[in-house]
Every structure is written in C-alpha cells, then in structure tokens.
Design brief:
The chain has 456 residues and is α+β, with helices and mostly antiparallel strands. The chain has two domains: 8-161 and 328-441, 3-Layer(bba) Sandwich (FAD/NAD(P)-binding domain), CATH 3.50.50; 167-324, Elongation Factor Tu (Ef-tu), domain 3 (Beta Barrel), CATH 2.40.30. The protein has helices at 15-26, 68-78, 82-89, 102-114, 147-157, 207-219, 241-245, 298-305, 330-333, 358-376, 389-400, 430-441; strands spanning 8-11, 31-35, 58-61, 91-92, 97-100, 119-123, 137-139, 162-168, 171-173, 183-184, 200-205, 273-279, 286-289, 316-318, 321-327, 339-340, 343-348. The radius of gyration is 22 Å and the shape is globular.
Length: 456
C-alpha cells in the first residue's frame, strides 16, 4: 500500500476526535489533530488533556448481550478502538457499568496519540472554516464548539445550530462521607469486571427526609440564563435534578433516587429513596453523585446535598455545573459518510452530529476516521451494517431521524431493524439483536476480534 503524504486534519481532541485520529493512523494515514485547549478553555473542561471526560466518568452498561451501549462497546473493541482500550485499562468498580478513572483514562489516550508517528498534535484554535488546502477534514469540536467556528458553520449551511443544556454532577471526597449511615451495594448485587457487587455507596432516605430534600431542591436558587439561552431546551437524558423534581414529587424516587434492588443492612428493608455515589478515580478517593447533574448555585448545592444522610459533612472536589451544547441537524446536513452536503471535504464526528453519550460520540469518531482513511487511500468502504450498533446509530443521524424534530439520541435497540423472523411479542429480543449485530459486524472491515474479556 502506498502511504499518502497529505494529512487529514481533525479539529477537536475530545473522544470523537481522538478516536478518529487513531483510526486514521491505524490505516497508515497521517493526521494533524488540532485541539484549542488549554490555549482556549471551554465552560466545562477542567484542563487541556485529550479525551477529557466532562460530566460522568461512566461509559454506562458493559453488558453486550442485553444493552445496546454494551453492544456498542463490544463492536468498538472489535474495531480496535483507542477509547475502549483506554477505558478498559483504567476502569474502576461500577457494577455492570464501565466506569473509568477519568485522569488515567485521558492520560492514556493522549499518550497513545503522542507516541503515534503519524499523528501530529497542534494546540491551536481553528476560528473559521478550514483552509481550502485542507481537502479532508473531520470536525469533532463537540458540544462546546467555539462560537466563531459555530458561526462559520451556520453561515455555510444556512441552518441554525440546534442546542440544549447539559449539566454536570458533583464529586465528593470519600473520606468526608459518614459510613455509619451508608453502605456499599450494587443494584441486585450485580457485579461487573473489577467490581464485587458492592460498587456503589448508598445513602438511604425515609419518606420525611425525601420530602424535605425535594422541597429544598425546588426552593434552591439556580443559575440565571442569559437572554440567548432562555429558549434552549434540555436533553431529557441529562436533566438537572431540580428540573426532574419539578415534574412531580415521585419523579426522582423512580429516577436517579430509585431504591429498587437495594436493601439497607441496618434495617433489612428497602429504603423509601436512595442517593447513590459511584467511584470516580482509581484510588477510590473521589465519588460522584449518580444522576445529580444540576444548575443550582454552588452555595445552594453545598446546603441541599448535605441534607442527604451520610453526606452531612461532605466536601466537594467539584460542584455541579451547566453548559450549553451545540449540535447539527445531521439528517438534513450530512450524507451517509458524515460529509457535509454543502462542503463534502468536511466530515463531522461526535456530539456535534447529534449523538448523546461518550461512547456514541467516540463511535461516530471511529466511523469518520475510517471513512476519511478510505477516501485518502482511494478505497471503497461500505457503511457498517444497519443491524449493528455502529450502523444503526449512523443511519439514525444521517437520514432515519426526522429532521424537523431531530434531537440528541443515545444508542438503543429501537434504532435497529426488526428481527426476521419475528420471535413473538414475549420473546427476549435483546440477545437476538446483539448476536445478529456481532455476526454481521464480522463482514464489515472491522479487524479481528480482541481476546476474550479484554481490549484490542
């Protein structure tokens, strides 16, 4: 194979951009990866590391047989994903979920790309459309795209970017939690790799404590919106906890505070409600409050969250926050290989395409990298089968979704083509979808399967 001499430019060093750069280099294509941090920071990032995790440290379920995101994990491992390799190497106990030490994870991704001879990392901001000489570009600027670049895209497409608010959950120092009042347990004692079925800290609330907590949450002062932000909708998959509480008194008790699958060892009974905390780093010194993304002011967060039994003396390594996410109307603007119809030299990847979640963002980066590599090498590449998680997600954002109502989407089995023959109403379809996906992926240029239980 003749190695191309002209580089593909990747704008954005988040999960999608890092994965795209890795996939290009694996195919022998040189890459210039442009990342504006730390020269220009965003409202949500803490540092300048590549693939920094902003919100949760969880990649969600790792169950490839029964969960669509777990299936996406498995498919990406078979595609030699850098993001999944780094996540597997830096996982922390989280039951059946894949959660990571966020600092170790980011450092591993950056180290792998820095050591790759075909990848050049440039710390600089791209403030407008890429120069015309850049004939193959992947835009992976993420949900926090710099305003100047977003304005340039809007001018090019004639399409106003859609936007929604995403919120960040607080992180607590473990040694400030009162362990006389809490206990370790995963729901239904379900364990996962690196875990033992007791991976979450559980803070129980009785009926009165729950009612008082909800009242304080609703009374808390929140961040004021700027005028241009007031019409921006939230994404339902990451609602601030106080917004959820405002939808009804039991919303949280059947959402992030649901007590199902848990039993307080001090009483032998299921609590009325539970606040769970999940390990956030490999040293197990930090725990994030699961599902507690918020737009409460910092002073209010300290007061309200310390009402939770066991957190009365909690100290916070990071308080919750709020940031504005931007994404394209991809079904209208992008073709099946993620190219911008108005300027095909630009491909898009990650959350800016309207996928939601770390894994989904990295998956679209993986696809964009492979598509760009094929173009640079002048090779044909088929789209991944629509029966796979990769293919179903790609199909949704590039045409299957309704452009008039397009909103960010997590991967789910509802995006997959129906099974044929139909196993019947009461059959458990999820393992059937998963087995079909992995079988069909083998026919796509995905590379060899990794060793059992490991990353590629």
């Amino acid at each position: 194979m003749t190695r191309p001499t002209n580089a593909v430019h990747v704008i954005g060093g988040g999960l999608a951009g890092s994965e795209a750069a890795w996939q290009l280099a694996r195919e022998g294509v040189p890459v210039v990866l442009h990342e504006m941090r730390p020269l220009r920071m965003t409202e949500a990032h803490q540092g300048g590391g590549l693939a920094e995790l902003v919100c949760s440290n969880s990649f969600r379920s790792d169950d490839a047989a029964r969960n669509a995101v777990g299936l996406l994990h498995a498919e990406m491992r078979r595609c030699n994903s850098l993001i999944l390799r780094a996540a597997d190497a830096h996982r922390v106990p989280a039951g059946a979920a894949l959660a990571v030490d966020r600092i170790g994870f980011s450092a591993a991704v950056e180290a792998a790309l820095a050591a790759e001879p075909l990848v050049v990392i440039r710390r600089e901001e791209i403030t407008g459309l890429p120069p015309a000489a850049w004939d193959e570009v992947i835009v992976a600027t993420g949900p926090l795209t710099a305003p100047a670049f977003a304005d340039a895209l809007a001018a090019l497409t004639g399409e106003n970017a859609l936007a929604f608010f995403d919120a960040i959950a607080p992180i607590v120092y473990r040694d400030t939690i009162d362990f006389d009042r809490v206990w370790f347990q995963s729901r239904y004692d379900k364990g996962g790799p690196g875990g033992n079925g007791a991976d979450y800290i559980n803070c129980p609330l009785d009926r009165e404590q729950y009612a008082a907590f909800i009242a304080a949450l609703l009374a808390g002062e929140t961040i004021d919106f700027r005028d241009w932000e007031k019409s921006t909708p939230y994404f339902d998959g990451c609602l601030p906890i106080e917004v959820m509480a405002g939808r009804g008194p039991d919303t949280l008790r059947w959402g992030p505070m649901k007590p199902v699958g848990l039993r307080d060892p001090k009483t032998g009974r299921r609590p009325y409600a539970v606040v769970q905390l999940r390990q956030d780093n490999a040293l197990a010194t930090l725990y994030n409050i699961v599902g507690f993304q918020t737009k409460l002011r910092h002073s209010e967060q300290r007061t309200v969250f310390r009402m939770v039994p066991g957190l009365e003396g909690a100290e916070f390594a990071r308080l919750g926050g709020l940031h504005r996410n931007t994404f394209l109307n991809s079904p209208r603007l992008l073709d099946g290989q993620l190219r911008l119809r108005a300027m095909p030299r630009l491909r898009f990847a990650g959350q800016i395409t309207g996928v939601e979640g770390y894994v989904e963002s990295a998956a679209i980066g993986l696809l964009a990298g492979r598509f760009a590599a094929a173009a640079r090498l002048r090779q044909q590449i088929d789209l991944p089968p629509a029966t796979t998680a990769l293919g179903a997600l790609l199909a949704h954002i590039t045409g299957a979704a309704e452009p008039r109502t397009f909103q960010p989407m997590n991967v789910n089995f509802g995006l997959f083509p129906l099974l044929s023959p139909d196993p019947g109403r009461h059959a458990d379809r999820k393992p059937l979808y998963a087995s079909r996906a992995l079988a069909d992926l083998a026919a796509w240029p995905a590379g060899p399967a990794p060793p059992e239980g490991g990353s590629p």
